[in-house]
Each structure stands twice: as structure tokens, then as C-alpha cells.
Design brief:
By secondary structure, this protein is α/β, with parallel strands linked by helices. It has a seven-stranded parallel β-sheet with strand order 3-2-1-4-5-6-11, sandwiched between helices. The radius of gyration is 20 Å and the shape is globular. Pfam families: Inos-1-P_synth.
Amino acid sequence: MKIRVGIIGVGNCASSLIQGITYYGFNKGKEAVGLMHMEIGGFKASDIEVVLAFDIDKRKVGRDISEAIYQKPNCTKRIVDHIENSGVTVKMGKILDGVASHMEDYSKDISFDLSNEKQPTKEEIVMYIKESKAEMLINYLPVGSENAAKFYAECALEAGVGYINNMPVFIASNQEWANKFKEKNLPIIGDDIKSQVGATIVHRTLVNLFRERGVEIDRSYQLNVGGNTDFLNMLDRKRLASKKISKTDAVQSVGHLKESDVNLHVGPSDFVPWLKDNKVCFIRIEGREFGDIPIELELRLSVEDSPNSAGVVIDAIRCCKLALDNNVGGVLVGPSSYFCKHPIEQFEDSVALKNVQCFIKKYQ
């Protein structure tokens, strides 16, 4: 039995997800590393099937998704050498605010090449979702695509499918939107997917360590640089408002920090093209320990950005499937708190892990 999903945005993250589904299919019956849960509710990673995909780049639109994931400007590392033709052709999506204007100033090798195909109406997108028999939509739109993210959330509601919001537009964490999914009895997980071991989860862990050991934190920063289209897109600082809120709240909440109490800066720093999908994070924490003596910590973390979140999304998909099979609608609080930076309710990571484990145990 397969979990049928639709993907919005065939970028690096979608590429890592689809490659990962194939990779873990190859490893059936063998010990495979890299997943938090090898099985959820009887479903393995290889049981996920992408049946629908939308994009706006002409190098991807009209191609089979097995080919589209390797087209420029995608630059993430290959997990598998070959993916069989899926029979799923990438459809033209709705642009809205999905592309920052400054992206046109860069080489097409590292930026979008907009398709000239006619954009579909909402009615057509809802029809595509229903025809594909997708059970949920996975939102992989660029940061700052506020209108586009909400548009596809509305499409999910009208089509009667679940929604996993991997980007920092506040939908699952917005009570008005949460109520809409509850009323339709459709599950939603969000907002802003965490990485497996990324900047936010590491920063949260260190802040929590300082707090638990009685250290008073005075100031901290988290700076990130990378060379994929996500970092290029975020050069437009106007598109960063919700991203900064999401990442900052994630760190503040675990340390019970207030902006008035600590000088905290969390956010992207710059775009470095030759880094490609590699993301480098710099974290610094300054505080005072026993006797008011200063303590300083600096850390550098280097990860391949897109695969780092793919395993978390695979878990989110399987939890969304459990909710659908058990007729559970609305925000999935446990999964959202563990998988996402800006859930409707924040918990310390150890508590969030117990919450998601209880959710899985209850419904599988």
C-alpha cells in the first residue's frame, strides 16, 4: 500500500525526498541509516509515492519528475544514480509571489527560468489533485511565498487532502487556518520543517544545555550561508520576515528567553554560489556561569542542506497518513512540535519527541 503525495515546488528539497524514497527502497531488508523511524504505522519510506508535482521553471515543467529533480538550478548531491521514469509529469503551477524579482539578475544556472506556460486556475489545480488521488500536498515553495503558500493551502482544503507546510508561512500555527482544517477534518503539519541535525535544532540544544546548567545567557547569534536557490531567494530581506520569526521563536522558546532579556540574532547571512547545497552555520553563545564569570561558545556546522530535512519530511508524511487513516483532522500538535520550527505549540525537544511517539503509538 502506497502513500500518495503531491509536491509543490520541485527544487532541491523535493529532489532529496524523491531520491531518498528510491534509496530506502533499494535498502529493503538491509540496515539503512539516516531515518528517525524506519517504520511508522507499517509504512516505510519506500511506501511513499509522488503522484503529482507543480513547478514554474521551464526546465522542469513538462518533464517526468524523475528527470525534473536533476534539472538546474537544483544542485543537491545525488543519493542514487538513477530513478526510473515515474509517469508523473510536472505541471505548471501558480506563480503569485513564488519568485523574488532580484532572481532575474542572476545566471539561469543558479536561478529560475520561468516557464511561459499558462498558469492554472485554482479550479484546475483542485481538479489535478483529485484526479491524481493524492492524499496530501507537500509545500516546498521558496521562503517569502506568503500568498502562494496560502493559495495551495486553500486548494488542499477544497480538494479534501492533508497539508504539510515545510516553509515559514504561518498556516498550521495560525488559529484561523488551523480551524479551517479542523472544520474540514483534514490533517495539517507545520510550519517550517526542521532539519535532521541543522542550525536550529543544534542552537536549541545548546541554549537548553546552558539553561539547565545554570548559565545566564547574555547574547547569541546564528548565521547561515549557502549556495542554493533558497539562499539566493533570501537575499531579498523583505521575504525574510516570517523566516526570522520562525527561527528566533524556536530558539527563544526552549531557553525561555525574551528579546528584552538577551541580545539574540538568528537568520541567514549571505549567498555563496560555490557552496551549492552545502549550508554552513555559525553559532555563538555568550553568558555568565558560577561567580558571574564569562563563558563563550562558538560552533561551526556544515551540512548538505536539502537531504538534512528530507528524512524529517518522510516522518511527517507517514504521520499525516496515520491521521488520514484514523479520521483525525486539524493541526497534528505532536508531529508539528517535533518536526517543525514554528508549531502551534512549542515544547522542549525531549517532550516533543515523546509527543510524536505517543501519536504514532496511538494511531498505528
